[in-house]
Amino acid sequence: MKFLPTTKEEMKNLGWDSIDVLLISGDTYLDTSYNGSVLVGKWLVEHGFKVGIIAQPEVDVPDDITRLGEPNLFFAVSGGCVDSMVANYTATKKRRQQDDFTPGGVNNKRPDRAVLVYSNMIRRFFKGTTKKIVISGIESSLRRITHYDYWTNKLRKPILFDAKADILSYGMGEMSMLQLANALKNGEDWQNIRGLCYLSKEMKEDYLSLPSHSECLADKDNFIEAFHTFYLNCDPITAKGLCQKCDDRYLIQNPPSESYSEEIMDKIYSMEFARDVHPYYKKMGTVRALDTIKYSVTTHRGCYGECNFCAIAIHQGRTIMSRSQSSIVEEVKNIAETPKFHGNISDVGGPTANMYGLECKKKLKLGACPDRRCLYPKKCPHLQVNHNNQVELLKKLKKIPNIKKIFIASGIRYDMILDDNKCGQMYLKEIIKDHISGQMKIAPEHTEDKILGLMGKDGKSCLNEFKNQFYKINNELGKKQFLTYYLIAAHPGCKDKDMMDLKRYASQELRVNPEQVQIFTPTPSTYSTLMYYTEKDPFTNQKLFVEKDNGVSNLYSLDDITNEKGEKIRKDSNYEKHYLLGNYGAIPNLKNLLGRE
């Protein structure tokens, strides 16, 4: 199936008189593996279910959302690949004019709090429906318990309460949604399916109880306790189920879905994708997001970096789920045979490109350690980093006919390259030689060790060593390529002096004015957002300075942006960029897709 149906005529052409599942998304319909709704929809179709999709429905009229009719089993609502509030507003809470996931690029299709809006539209326009409303995607996943909302500056209830939905599918939802569809089809109990949340009048036996919503409102220390317990129960091997009281009901969170095997990952990404905008929406205008993801390839999911501003650990998990080399090679071969393909693969990677195929054997057997992280403050000795598998993969991909260039646009952990004494240099040389063009973007996020510690990242000595190795290899290869750096301003704990020290270090040691700077944006379900709200370090309970003045962008002068060669890159009065490394790292270059104010 090239496209999921979005009109009655398309359903008729498939021989369908009804659908089992209706997907509703805050993005336009991009038929690619980077679209979570499409992944789930096609996975259900692969297993015999009839699935339709309505993208960016008009809010005030029933015509759009009802045009495929009521589904036989359930509605599946997603805000889209990007949290709707992040997509609609900058860090200084200014409305974004541009949306690269909307035809024509004008930000006029995605409502604020899209999940709530779409769920309430179902109640309004499918009056009396008895079909389940299931909310999913990153917007729902990160709001599944009491959470801090930056845009209203308060704690909000678990999103199921506000959405008036029946079920929440969190994390990567292919398996939980398939199991739910089978259960509803067969009239079976679904309330023990992993990866699902629902509301109940009673607690569930043997599940851990979080501080209630009212207790979190009353005392920030209770909110810290709730988040610690929530975070530590996101590993599929060790996690227990959770309960949280809100008003007179309980949120019930079942343990997360099991990590996908290589075989399952291969099956998911071997499904047919048009790699294009559905014709129904294509006629409405160009969708700029497609430029980045049309010829990009996902190698794996998950990240064990656990940066404190990052939500990947909560959403995709801390365990790497990789595809086989043969599966990735086959996908690139298929792309290379596509009409109008010009030879360049935009990205081969995942949330962190060089975590592909690298996982701790102990973690795979026993689950993520509750008392230590894989990479911070130093790499755990149980994690054996070896980039040889990735080098082999890249060499195979380069040999495919019609391939001119394989780019790696996903993030790279340079500390892992330095820790790999066997193949780190070989990997770095391969990247520099064939997989970047002019510059390599890395994300130190800051240069001051105190702030890096609060972020959960290595100190600046690691950055210095990598910088020296990068330029040494470039000189040996006779290439004139440069490093550019992503940095965060106003992370909790960061004061004016820290930003001035960053600017001084960047100028004197890195010899650059940074190309991109992000003002810290508190998004739900990260430790850094917990710091922002509570004004405490949740690991030490020490008080933190937190910059909450929207004029913080003036801390860092970006009038003249230059590279190490001294060449001006750009001057832009609206230069506030939002590098969403944490929440949406699986989409290559999403930091650029969101555009300027």
Task: Explain what this protein looks like in three dimensions.
The protein is α/β, with parallel strands linked by helices. It is 33% helix and 15% strand. It contains 24 helices and 24 strands. The strands form eight sheets. It has a nine-stranded mixed beta sheet, sandwiched between helices. The chain has a three-stranded parallel beta sheet with strand order 20-21-22. Strands 2-13 form a two-stranded antiparallel sheet. A hairpin with a 4-residue loop joins β6 and β7. Residues 552-597 have low confidence and may be disordered.
* Basic shape: globular
Rg of Cα set: 23 Å
Please state roughly what percent of the residues sit in beta strands, choosing from under 5%, 5-15%, 15-25%, 25-35%, 35-45% or over 45%: 5-15%
How much helix is in the residues?
25-40%
Number of strands: 24
Residue runs with pLDDT of under 50 for 5 or more positions: 552-597
Secondary structure class reads: alpha/beta
Q: If strands are numbered along the chain, what order do they take across the biggest sheet?
A: 3-1-4-5-8-9-12-11-10
The major sheet is characterized as: 9 strands, mixed
Mean pLDDT over the full residue set = 91
